Amino acid sequence: xxxxxxxxxxxxxxxxxxxxxxxxxxxxxxxxxxxxxxxxxxxxxxxxxxxxxxxxxxxxxxxxxxxxxxxxxxxxxxxxxxxxxxxxxxxxxxxxxxxxxxxxxxxxxxxxxxxxxxxxxxxxxxxxxxxxxxxxxxxxxxxxxxxxxxxxxxxxxxxxxxxxxxxxxxxxxxxxxxxxxxxxxxxxxxxxxxxxxxxxxxxxxxxxxxxxxxxxxxxxxxxxxxxxxxxxxxxxxxxxxxxxxxxxxxxxxxxxxxxxxxxxxxxxxxxxxxxxxxxxxxxxxxxxxxxxxxxxxxxxxxxxxxxxxxxxxxxxxxxxxxxxxxxxxxxxxxxxxxxxxxxxxxxxxxxxxxxxxxxxxxxxxxxxxxxxxxxxxxxxxxxxxxxxxxxxxxxxxxxxxxxxxxxxxxxxxxxxxxxxxxxxxxxxxxxxxxxxxxxxxxxxxxxxxxxxxxxxxxxxxxxxxxxxxxxxxxxxxxxxxxxxxxxxxxxxxxxxxxxxxxxxxxxxxxxxxxxxxxxxxxxxxxxxxxxxxxxxxxxxxxxxxxxxxxxxxxxxxxxxxxxxxxxxxxxxxxxxxxxxxxxxxxxxxxxxxxxxxxxxxxxxxxxxxxxxxxxxxxxxxxxxxxxxxxxxxxxxxxxxxxxxxxxxxxxxxxxxxxxxxxxxxxxxxxxxxxxxxxxxxxxxxxxxxxxxxxxxxxxxxxxxxxxxxxxxxxxxxxxxxxxxxxxxxxxxxxxxxxxxxxxxxxxxxxxxx
Length: 753
Known about the structure:
Layout: H1 9-14, E1 16-18, E2 24-26, E3 37-39, E4 45-48, E5 59-62, E6 73-74, E7 80-81, E8 91-94, E9 99-102, E10 111-121, E11 129-137, E12 143-146, E13 150-151, E14 159-167, E15 178-182, E16 185-194, E17 212-214, E18 217-218, E19 224-227, E20 230-235, E21 241-244, E22 254-263, E23 271-273, E24 276-278, E25 283-286, E26 299-301, E27 313-321, E28 330-335, E29 340-349, E30 373-375, E31 381-385, E32 391-396, E33 409-413, E34 422-431, E35 439-443, E36 452-456, E37 464-471, E38 479-483, E39 491-501, E40 519-521, E41 527-528, E42 535-543, H2 544-554, E43 559-567, H3 568-573, H4 579-584, E44 589-593, H5 599-602, E45 608-616, E46 627-637, E47 640-645, H6 650-653, E48 654-655, H7 657-666, H8 672-684, E49 685-691, E50 694-697, E51 707-712, E52 715-720, E53 731-734, E54 737-739, E55 742-744, E56 747-751
Parallel strand pairs: 4-47, 49-53
Antiparallel strand pairs: 1-2, 3-44, 5-6, 5-9, 7-8, 8-16, 9-15, 10-14, 10-16, 11-12, 11-13, 11-15, 17-18, 17-21, 19-20, 20-29, 21-28, 22-27, 22-29, 23-24, 25-26, 25-28, 30-33, 31-32, 32-39, 33-38, 34-37, 34-39, 35-36, 35-38, 40-42, 41-42, 42-45, 43-44, 43-46, 46-47, 46-48, 49-50, 51-52, 52-56, ...
């Protein structure tokens, strides 16, 4: 287990406090991975972390009944919906005949891209569709002005859309796109990513066969067959099949060819291609690239050695290097011993020469977390979510696709640095275009050239790290001002910003990803605590990378992780489920702070460090009262404690000890000691349904109730079987309403409404 934070465990263990109205939270008995600190107020200033910043730069909407509106208006909050596919709470809402135009600078030529988004239909006319204008080279590498359209869609579930394309020099400069909505839709997770794939439509699912030939003639739909695996290309013995890559592969880079294949028969034959006849024992492959220094390594005979493989799908892959003295353009397949089906043909780069960039800014519509930065949303800066889930600041000269934007900037706060001391600023950047300043950084505002200590004037073809030194407060200002591109169609991306003390090596920026530290309940619902003292417990966790970064920047004594627990009825009274909101409303809660990560919880979610938070010794009157839990991580800086909260919903995180006890007795894997505790809880709560003058006990799987119930008028009587103690009954719940029982002999009675 990994320790986190310095907690006063002895004090927490000794503490037993009544709180939460009639609820009681007590400390965990013994040193465990759980400790409870009941809280109602704090002497320190606390605040809830700020929400994401949403920017609408480089995007607009027009609506004049055509797909090419003459005028556009900037996107505003009114164009967003609170329904989202990615959990950030925002998506783009397109009404009938709306045309959405995002711009993204110029996509570099000679590369493949994937346009992707999620969509949901919000109108029901039966003729909803999306028309997607994108001046591109389609998967057949033919000039196309539209991507594949969307027709219909689900009104209850988000649907994924992808379209792969190419940008070719001399054909078009791709700087924007348009989505025209017929009917109403929600759009989310809109991205244009560089695509590490050089065979477009290698699954043969779409009718783009222009880069595939058989004996020199273009493959047609007649060469495509349907199989239990989907669509596949049939390779007939004696013919040569060539799959052209969508571009010439980079010189001396390393690639991998992979595909699935099925051998249909084993008839002996010779393979012919380009006037040559080839012999072999199976499928002969020409990669048009070397797998070693030997030129003959361009050829590979898969052979045929296992008759058991006949008519079953197999997988093949082979790495190769592109030629240094010639163009590497295609792979050739020559079946020399029977017919084959092939599918999922792929060529991908497997070294670090591939450029991974997502170009479209703001397409997640939920914004980015900008703590530590000052963002100026009236300029040409925005932020683009990258494939790893982090964000990059992005700038370009063109905005909306209908004009030019003022060169903008953002600021990096440096008020935490020691004035007069030397520090290093570092960041990663990618920039296309030439002959312009693609990035500049000033020590303070850009009022004079002498303040500039970063000036990058050359584009790069891959993410590149840059570092420069500066003196904190040299010009009596506690920020750095960062500028991006200032010309035409070019764009600049900046990410992984860090400030480092040149002497000590200490780092100062925790928010490098522009993503709020992610903390969450690892599992929906709750369970019975599996060791004494028993109670109700929740599993929570924080993303391990976020935790490590916070510890690095703020120190372990200033970072803690925990769970706030409160009765669900209190949560409904507060404005929001946060510690500051509960303090302001004078509502009680339990602040359960853990001192150890738990290996069992860690295993529940990859990449997260987890812990259990338990509420024990729950009073009898609260056995069927729902308690809600919300995970958090808190950071203290300069006497202010900032809380970062995980997502919360009553449906997922609110449970009673009675509910989790029912689940425990029904479980086939729960320990017997836990089941006995759970049965003890169930013995204390009598759940009854009264309808049409009849009273019926609620049946619970795995539990045999020792009680019987009868109704006379409005008096409900519960009797105990031999050996059962009627004094165990603490709550009688009738049709969802709790009653306090009156004990008389071997029975209890309640008068119901």
